Amino acid sequence: LAVPRLLERRPQPLAFTAKFEIRPKIDKLDTALTLTRKTFVIGDKEVDAEIEHLRGEHAIVEPVETPRGATKGDILVIDWVVTIDGHKDEGKSGKDRHVTLGEGRLLTEIETGIEGMKVGDARAITITRPATDENKELGGKVVVFDVTAKELRVRRLPDIDDDFAKDVGDYENLADLRAKLKTRLEDAAKAR
Length: 192
Prior knowledge:
Oligomer: single chain
Largest sheet: 6 strands, antiparallel
Radius of gyration: 33 Å
Helix content: 25-40%
């Protein structure tokens, strides 16, 4: 019988390297901690703010019936074409953008430029960007926004009454809404 060569080898001792974390021994530990629990007082002011938030969520948006210029709080539907140093930039242009005046989401120059626009108005709003503009692509360039107003809408906030309370949830009346909102706000404050 022939013995394979693998079996002819003599066993060698197994060798390996291992690393272990050794925690340091601490002789004295100062465990005095000072904790401060912040308390939140929920009052009428906080409940009123929550009700205003609910009013905003349940507002009815409708077209302005009597022609007039756009003012703060109005929603203006616009198309715009952007030109940078005389060259149209289709990537920055757009259609049917809903802009709520006064929210501060637009550059101040654009917001000021579109305020007072009526449906059908077209305006060119020119902005010279500073050389140190955070958008390097626009730094030091003249940007023209050709804006056309297509629609003017207004948000109608619901009255704060028993019907409003019933519309926003499972509440019997306005007093029930206020009480449950206060409880919910108190629970959230305790969780914080």
